Amino acid sequence: MTEVELLQRRLTRERLARQQAESLLEAKSLDLYRANEELRAAADRLEQGILNRTKALALANERLTGEVAERLKRERSLAAQYAATRVLAEAGSLAEAASRILDIICTGLGWDLGVLWKMDHATALLHHVELWHPTAGRETAFEAETRRMTLAFGVGLPGRVWAGKEPVWIPDVTMDDNFPRARLASQAGLHGAFAFPILLGNDVLGIFEFFSHESREPDGDLLRMLGVVGSQIGQFIERKSAEADLHQAKETAEAANRAKSQFLANMSHEIRTPMNGVLGMAELLLHSQLQGSPRRFAEAIQQSGKALLRIINDLLDFSKIEAGRMELDPMDFDLRKAVLEAVQLFTSLAEAKDLRLSCDIRPAVPVFVRGDQGRLRQILANLISNAIKFTERGSITLRVELEGREAPPTEPRDTLHERCDATLRFSVIDTGIGLTAEQQGRLFHAFTQADGSTTRKYGGTGLGLAISKQLVLLMGGTIGIESRQGLGSTFWFMVPFGPPVADDAPPDCDKPAVCIGTADAGPAVAEREESERPLKGTVLLADDNLVNQQVAQAMIESFGCRVDVVANGREALEALLRRSYDLVLMDCQMPEMDGLEAARRIRERETQAQGTGYGVRGESTSNPEPQTPNREPGTPNRMPIVALTAHVRESDRADCLAAGMDDVLTKPFQREGLKGVLMQWLTKNSDERGMMKDTGKTRIADTGLHHAAFGVQHSPLDPQPLEQLRALRQGTHPGLVQRVIGLYLADSPGLLAAMREALRQGDASALERAAHSLKSSSAALGATGLSHRCKALETMGRGKDLAQAEAVLAQVEADLADTHKALNDYLTQQPVEHLAGIK
Q: Who's near 191: CB < 8 A, 6+ residues apart?
């Protein structure tokens, strides 16, 4: 085959291949066209679906937006209603409530101006009361005209609400024919408006009116909600009116009650004046030489007069309570002493009925508290007197116990104020006639008795328990009764007492229960007889103050004891080596050797003597005990030592006991306080010593003094200490008062000079010593104000803080001059026979 043929055959094959390729390409192109057409159709369908879905979503969103807006509007309306209701519950007046409601509706519901109109029933017109707008800018003419104008029935938007007694909505007030302020509203840009009435029953009391800068179509839900608010405001006005009427009625009743009580008080005072004359004349008659029938007549007058005076006093107290004029007089006082004195008032009355009257003061009861001592005694007197009246046989017991107390502070404090807060329970327990439940329900009411019949056996006004209840309530306490008919009664009350304010108030001490006043010659009578017998024993008194020496020595000897006096602890130790004593009274602060060091030395001697068979005084002991340095007070070979100190803080008491002292007697002390200490430590009665041993605690002797009284008084002298000294002037102590005063007048200027010199040299210790000495002697003579200032200087010296000492020393100097003058005046007023023995 030639090349040409080969070439032709090849060309033929290529042409056939090209034709096949073109045919295949044409088929593929047709397939692509068809696929593209199908794709375009699918895209069209998808686009149409998206358009349809978008339209559906838009419609759904439009519906949802409407629902949300409607829900928000309802929530805002409900919030406004709730806020308005809360305002009405909290507001004190309509003016306060109205202002806040205008603000709530405008800010909460989106309104631009709010007005409150009030009904004037005298003129039958509405006038503006309150206007609210969001800013404090310049007032528009519309607002000014609103403040000035009044609207009649049916005129304007408020007038139409008044006429229809229901809410009214105006879409655009500028287009309303019955809106007198339309032109001014247009100038202010106000269009939409609505108003609702304040309704009380069927009466319109006022109108709330609101405006918007936009035209608004009526909102029925909002109008219904605000209609409810209008009714609530009407009820609020009615309630406030009723409260005002009630308050006025209460004031009228209280004024009438005060007038009645004032009249009763005036009448009581008027009656008391001639009663004092009656009782005074009866007293004079009984002190004359009357005998037989005239004396019995005078005694009857006196007894009847006293009974009538008690009734008058009850009426006066009751009138003061009703008039709201009864006030408390809180002070620091010795609680135990006050209770015992209240009971002792009735010992004779109890003895006359053959009743046993006792007082049970529990050990946990604090000694010094702060409260109204006089009112406490009055309550106790009422309850005890009532118990004696209704008890024919058996006993009456006053029990005092600690009901509750604040916990002690966990950290040290500079004052003692938190130490003694306590709630005490007082119970008067009798074995009398008792009361039924019905009778108990009538108690504590004025002019009421358990037996109100005309044939009742027991007299009285029925005011005593009513007054007691009011006094207990005034003191912040509670009172009640537990009783069964025929089985006796227990009248109780609980009263809170505060801590003593004065720094000199002593800490609590534990004392055994006390029983006094029996009518059957029982323990109390025996105790009373025992206390009246002369005491036997020898006493060593260690005190560096000459005035205190004279006073204490005279008191001790008046009880029948022998006493030796030394001036410091070293002399006390020497005196104990020379002779035997039954008791040592040891001042704590003395020169050369103080009382604490002397007590420690005495205890060391006792301890050493136990090993040698010889006592502290050098006397042989036939049956020496083993060496026991910490034996109980009152055991053999232990010398009783009682501290004499004015420092009665807990730390000072602890120092005395740690030094080996057995008891603490606070200065200045009274005669009875000293007698109690002597009876305690000089007695030979083993039972009494056993009682003290069983308590396991050492007590602070009851001085019977009110330490908080160390304040400035109208007179520089308290006469009681001098009168006690005068009572001791007989026998071996003629002219005692004059000698003591003479010593004081001679020594006190030197002590004052010593304080001045100590202050000039900045010697705090010297100031403390001189101030302590003058403090003690001044208190012994009743110069309590001066003693108190000296104590302040003593404290400054002990603390080495002399910043205020100059000013206090100037006051001490002035007080001392007044005290000297008062003492000299006292001496010049004494009868001639009282001046015997002055050297």
A: 171, 172, 173, 174, 185, 211, 212, 213, 214, 215, 216
Tokens of 573: 């130790």
DSSP state of 583: E
403: Cβ contacts below 8 Å, ≥ 6 apart: 422, 423, 424, 425, 494
**C-alpha 248: how far from chain center:** 32
Give the model's pLDDT for residue 445. 57
Model-wide pTM > 0.70: no
Beta-strand runs (E) in 319-386: 331-334, 356-361, 368-371
Q: Write the DSSP assignment of 170-185 as a string of letters.
A: ES-GGG-TT-TTHHHH
Residue 315 — very low, low, confident or very high, per pLDDT cuts 50/70/90?
low
Helix residue ranges, H only, 209-334: 220-286, 292-322
Q: 363: buried, middle or exposed (CB in 10 Å: 19+, 13-18, 0-12)?
A: middle
Per residue in 196-212, pLDDT (tens digit) is 998 887 888 889 999 99
Residue 337 host element (H or E)? helix 335-344
Over residues 652-694, the pLDDT tens digits come to 677 888 888 888 887 656 677 788 888 888 863 333 333 333 3
Residue 403 phi, psi dihedral angles, 5° rounding = -90, -35
DSSP state, residue 834: G
Sign of CA pseudo-dihedral 67, 72, 76, 82: positive
Rounded CA-CA distance 74/304 in Å is 82
